Amino acid sequence: MEAYIITLSSNPRSVSASERCKKSANIPIKTFDAITEQFAPKLMRDFGITWNYPWKGEEYDLKAGLKKTAYPTKDPMKRVACFLSHYLLWKKCAEQDEPILILEHDAIFVKPLEYQYILDAECEIAGINDPRGATRKSQEFHEKIQQKHQRVQIAPTIDDPTIPQGIAGNSAYIIKPSGAKKMLELVKEYGAWPNDALMCKQLIQCLCVTKEYYTRVQGIQSTTSL
Fold first, then answer.
1. Considering the domain 2-217 in this protein, what is its CATH number?
2. Cβ partners under 8 Å of residue 67, min gap 6
3. Largest Cα span, the chain
């Protein structure tokens, strides 16, 4: 299994955080140069992808049966660029037909990663990140995971079923080829959304999390929302 960390090479904070993550890991991690806002529009055109998520307020997607609520975003193209970075790694996973670990630069390992049991489990995508401080209703998210005995389990439901719910912030997850192909199909079907909204349990049946947390967020300033 290969591992990649999405890094803004022109941003010193991103590079430093990425290096801290690599040093904390027990596996080799490759740097993946993040897509930047300057190149996002052309890549969207090249891939034939349309952004289909509100920048303000909220709207109901009848086809998906989900309510889409705008994320705080100063520069929309940074949000699109973030989606594209994940999208390109989904493509790599699908084309190579091998599972990969995808990390954002704010992830850091808190214990050595055991991944074989995750690869052996019946899941297509598995979040390995500590939800506390990394997602909405994080304490409830954490408690629901810890109430169960399974080492790999379906992502918990923490909100109304019309609200997209998935893994903790998408800072760290293992994606298998079947999951990557599913994400690419969802982009074709529903258009581009923020990656952690599109990667939700309502649209992916085998979206899972691990009971043991292998990473947490470093708490660095967002490069997408600001």
1. 3.90.550
2. 58, 59, 60, 61, 160, 162, 163
3. 46
Phi first, then psi: what are they for 156, rounded to 5°?
-70, 155
How far is it, in rounded angstroms, from Cα 172 to Cα 157?
19
Residue 42 CB neighbour total at 10 angstroms: 9
Domain boundaries, the chain: 2-217
Contact criterion met (CB below 8 Å) for 89 and 100: yes
Helix axes 76-96, 177-190, angle to 10 degrees: 140
CA atoms within 13 A on the CB side of 175: 31
Decide if 210 contacts 118 (C-beta within 8 A). yes
142-159: pLDDT as tens digits: 999 999 999 999 999 999
Mean pLDDT of the chain: 95
Is the pLDDT reported for residue 225 higher than 80?
no
pLDDT tens-digit readout, 67-102: 999 998 889 999 999 999 999 999 999 999 999 999
**Could you tell me the CA-to-CA distances from 128 to 107, 118, 153, 185, 210 in Å, in that order?**
10, 10, 11, 23, 6
